[in-house]
């Protein structure tokens, strides 16, 4: 197997206990925290990506099913540390890439210009490359093959910092990007990060900085009015997993009456039932998806995936002049 020049490992197994919300799937711009990182990596042609999951793994699996990445599961996420997830990612990538980009999931606002500088420097490095802003080192960090063993053989003391101290070949790249230092451990961190990122983007549009646009699309099916979209697919997949519309609504944090209304509206427009209700018994009643509903979800998700691929190619062709 020919190794990729670059691969990426994104540790995202933690409980997000200080935040109170699940950090990887929190909104960020027009997408989520995790997907904003994935989209930037892919824009820089980094396609070998592993996300290490743990807490709320099934929800992560669903959110990432169209991303064409590798998902590694850290089953000991409640007792382990982030460094354990890092080692899991490096062990997977050690025979797949010449360089590994380590990108913590709670640092989502790094600019494309910074990533480009780091990638260029890493191609000449035999150790570690990391960004420095105002004299302080930040993320993401890029490791060459020569440094993999230092990570994998480290005993875990002081976590990643302890492993980095064993690596002699270090390249520091000075950047004007403050986001290499801005993580989001608390709600206040998140609020400040979003505000600063929005201000940065406004300055970009006014011409004081040059960063690229991004491409996103949301697909809705319409018959007279919108009746089938990503939110409904999310709800139906929860019903499929939990076997109950009530439990699915609770999991999504929406009222049962609202979820029921979404499904009934879709049934009227589509012309077939979405759910099959099971009568009660020893385990009580519940709901399952009808074959027609499963087929509709499958067609919708396939269309979204293909549209995203084609759309990205068209977008790159139309806006390539702005990226240079």
UniProtKB/TrEMBL annotation:
Residues 8-167 form the MobA-like NTP transferase domain. It comes from the Bacteria. CDD domains: GT_2_like_f (cd04182). Signal peptide: none annotated. InterPro entries: MobA-like_NTP_Trfase, Nucleotide-diphossugar_trans, WH-like_DNA-bd_sf, WH_DNA-bd_sf. Coiled coil: none annotated. One of its GO terms (molecular function) is nucleotidyltransferase activity. Pfam families: NTP_transf_3. This is MobA-like NTP transferase domain-containing protein.
């Amino acid at each position: 197997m020919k190794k990729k020049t670059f691969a990426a490992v994104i540790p995202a197994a933690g409980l997000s206990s200080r935040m109170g919300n699940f950090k990887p799937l929190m909104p960020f711009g027009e997408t989520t925290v995790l997907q904003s990182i994935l989209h930037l990596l892919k824009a820089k042609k980094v396609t070998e990506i592993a996300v290490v999951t743990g807490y709320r793994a099934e929800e992560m699996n669903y959110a990432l099913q169209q991303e064409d990445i590798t998902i590694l599961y850290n089953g000991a996420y409640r007792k382990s540390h982030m460094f354990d997830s890092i080692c899991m990612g490096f062990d997977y990538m050690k025979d797949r890439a010449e360089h590994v980009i380590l990108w913590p999931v709670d640092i989502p606002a790094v600019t494309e210009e910074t990533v480009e500088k780091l990638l260029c420097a890493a191609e000449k490095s035999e150790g570690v490359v990391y960004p420095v802003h105002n004299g302080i080192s930040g993320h993401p960090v890029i490791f060459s093959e020569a440094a993999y063993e230092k990570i994998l053989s480290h005993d875990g003391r002081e976590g990643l910092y302890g492993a980095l101290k064993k690596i002699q070949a270090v390249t520091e790249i000075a950047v004007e990007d403050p986001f290499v230092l801005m993580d989001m451990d608390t709600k206040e961190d998140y609020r400040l990060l979003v505000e600063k990122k929005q201000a940065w983007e406004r300055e970009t549009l006014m011409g004081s900085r040059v960063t690229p646009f991004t491409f996103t699309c949301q697909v809705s099916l319409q018959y007279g009015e919108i009746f089938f979209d990503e939110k409904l697919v999310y709800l139906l997949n929860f019903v499929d997993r939990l076997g109950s519309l009530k439990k699915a609504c609770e999991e999504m944090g929406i009222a049962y009456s609202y979820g029921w209304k979404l499904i009934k509206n879709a049934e009227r427009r589509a012309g077939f039932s979405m759910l099959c209700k099971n009568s009660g018994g020893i385990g009580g009643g519940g709901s399952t998806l009808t074959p027609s509903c499963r087929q509709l979800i499958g067609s919708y998700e396939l269309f979204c995936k293909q549209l995203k691929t084609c759309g990205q190619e068209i977008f790159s062709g139309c806006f390539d002049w702005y990226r240079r």
